[in-house]
Amino acid sequence: MAGRRLSGLRLSTISDTPSSSTYGNQIEDRVISQGDAQIELEEIYRAITWLSDDEQKLIFANYFDRNNLGDRTIMDDLYLSEGKFYRY
Questions:
Q1: Average pLDDT estimate for 25-54
Q2: In this structure, are residues 62 and 51 in contact, taking their beta carbons and an 8 Å threshold?
């Protein structure tokens, strides 16, 4: 170090601030995302309650049923005409 120029020296810094990971807090991010999704889902369900019974059944059959029924099957199950199905 004695032979180096002073302009090339770097001072080390000491800080009492805890260092953080470059990846952030992944668990906290997941918990926040899950909470946001739960709130959004509750808002969707609340909005659906304003629909008529037929409209609610159609929404649940078309978007929430994991069996992924086709349009024709849903029409038949709910006794809806094709026009009414697409209008809903």
A1: 85
A2: no
- Read off the pTM: 0.53
How many whole angstroms separate alpha carbon 20 and alpha carbon 60?
Answer: 44
Rounded Cα distance between 64 and 57, Å, is: 10
Whether the CB-CB separation of 80 and 54 falls below 8 Å is answered with yes
Q: Are 77 and 69 in contact (CB under 8 A)?
A: yes
Residue keyed to tokens 């926040």: 32
> Residue 68: pLDDT band by 50, 70, 90 thresholds?
confident
Cα Rg, the chain, nearest whole Å: 29
DSSP strands (E only) in the chain: none
Q: Which two tokens stand for residue 49?
A: 């309650």
The residue count of the chain comes to: 88
For the record, the structure tokens of 35 come out as: 């909470």
